[in-house]
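User: Can you predict the 3D structure of Aldo/keto reductase? Sequence below.
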Amino acid sequence: MRTRPLGRTGIQVSPYCLGTMMFGGAGNPDHDGCVRIIHRALDAGINVIDTADVYAGSESEEIVGRALRGRRDDVVLATKVNGRMGEDPNRAGSSRRWIVAGVEHSLRRLRTDHIDLYQIHHPDPRTDVEETLAALTDLMAGAGTVLGDDLLDRIDEIVPPGADVGPLDVAYDPPAVTTAALRRRAISERAAA
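Assistant: Sure. Here are the predicted structure tokens for Aldo/keto reductase:
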């Protein structure tokens, strides 16, 4: 199967992605059958598997983790955080607290030490976007992952520094939104690297 770039990340992905929202009690409760579907997709050349913490009460992530045993390095693994995962009001959303806890839970369920694409499933109007971005940035730094300058330039094309990105506290201009230099090296420094 042909591949294409995932944005400017340097990662090559198949044009198809296997979504696993219906794997588990919410759709297909047959775990062995779900594992067979994942294996067939991988054998056919699909290299992107997408899941989320809330799919079937996290059962989907457990199935994906089981299916990828011995094949993890062949897959671009995507999962999400944000959905309610219990009665505790802090077990949902895009707060630093929940993102950090959520990624730890997902890593355990997926039986892996890394997630290739960690996504915020839905906007969280209760959490400042700066808090969410800082938490994601810290996760990448802790994982030894750095956003490339090309990707950050593309983000600036889509959301220019200083652009209105939503309901932020009007008395505070987040430095990472208003000052591109705080997010990456200057163009003059890139050529030297």
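The helical segments are 31-43, 59-67, 96-110, 129-142, 149-158, 175-178, 187-192. The chain has seven helices and six strands.
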